């Protein structure tokens, strides 16, 4: 009895590498987004705490808002410069390593692809400054149109609280951690920063330093 011929056909999977690249790209994008969330959270907590500190010493809305804007400009510039220097140092290291690999191992690859993989200091600086500013503008907008001191402080705390919960949730999703725990840590940390700044500034303002 004749046995049927079994023909083995190998089917190529052209999308395997593409899927892997997509996962890698997603991971890189997630890292950038997580860094942006952390930068926005930094701007939010820093400026909200600064405004609370000024509010503890002076109830004037103009002084509180001007100080907040000054802090936002200074913080955004500081974040941009720090990120630029840091990423530029990383760029120099990676370029030097690529040159050593080519010289020692004789590796040849597409230079355009290699350049695309290298970090961009200007992009990192702009992203860092923008993220900080987006977080900082929230308490500033919340206080800009409220003249009553107690209401203004309460609104700043409320808006900052909601933003902290949102940032904590987004950071948890990007970092694949527990949302409730992440939100709790971010929220308690933000509250502590505002409370400590308010309390210490209040104590400093009530002390007699001959000013």
The strand count comes to 0
Based on Cα principal axes, name the global outline.
Answer: elongated
**Measured on Cα atoms, how large is the radius of gyration?**
26 Å
Termini Cα gap: 110 Å
Strand percentage: under 5%
Overall domain count: 1
SSE order, one letter for each helix or strand: HHHHHH
**Low-confidence region ranges:** 1-26
Let me know the largest β-sheet.
Answer: none
Mean pLDDT: 80
Helix content: over 70%
Q: How many helices in DSSP terms?
A: 6
Which structural class matches the secondary elements? mainly alpha
Describe the structure.
It is found in: Vacuole membrane. It is a multi-pass membrane protein. It is a single chain. The protein is an all-alpha fold. It has one domain. It has six helices and no strands. The protein has helices at 15-57, 61-105, 111-117, 121-144, 149-175, 179-206. The longest helix has 45 residues, at 61-105. It is elongated and about 70 Å long.
Can I get a quick summary?
The protein has 211 residues and is mostly helical. The protein has six helices and no strands. The protein has one domain (36-203).
Task: Using brief descriptors, characterize the structure shown.
211 residues; mainly alpha; 82% helix; disordered N terminus; membrane; iron transport
Q: How does the SSE layout of this entry go?
A:
Layout: H1 15-57, H2 61-105, H3 111-117, H4 121-144, H5 149-175, H6 179-206
Helix pairs in contact: 1-2, 1-4, 1-5, 1-6, 2-4, 4-5, 5-6
């Amino acid at each position: 009895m004749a046995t049927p011929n079994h023909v083995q056909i190998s089917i190529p999977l052209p999308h395997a590498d593409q899927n892997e690249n997509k996962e890698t790209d997603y991971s890189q994008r997630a890292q950038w987004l997580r860094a942006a969330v952390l930068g926005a959270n930094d701007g939010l907590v820093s400026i909200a705490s600064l405004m609370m500190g000024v509010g503890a010493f002076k109830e004037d809305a103009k002084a509180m808002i001007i100080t907040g804007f000054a802090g936002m400009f200074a913080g955004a510039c500081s974040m941009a410069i720090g990120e630029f220097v840091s990423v530029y140092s990383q760029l120099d290291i990676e370029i030097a390593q690529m040159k050593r690999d080519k010289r020692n191992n004789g590796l040849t690859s597409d230079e355009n692809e290699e350049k695309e993989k290298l970090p961009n200091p200007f992009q990192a600086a702009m992203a860092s400054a923008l993220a900080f500013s987006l977080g900082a503008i929230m308490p500033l907008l919340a206080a800009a149109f409220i003249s009553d001191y107690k209401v203004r402080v309460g609104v700043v705390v409320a808006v900052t609280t909601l933003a902290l919960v949102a940032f904590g949730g987004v950071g948890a999703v990007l970092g694949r951690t527990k949302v409730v725990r992440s939100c709790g840590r971010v929220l308690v940390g933000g509250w502590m920063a505002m409370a400590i700044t308010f309390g210490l500034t209040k104590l400093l303002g009530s002390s007699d330093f001959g000013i």
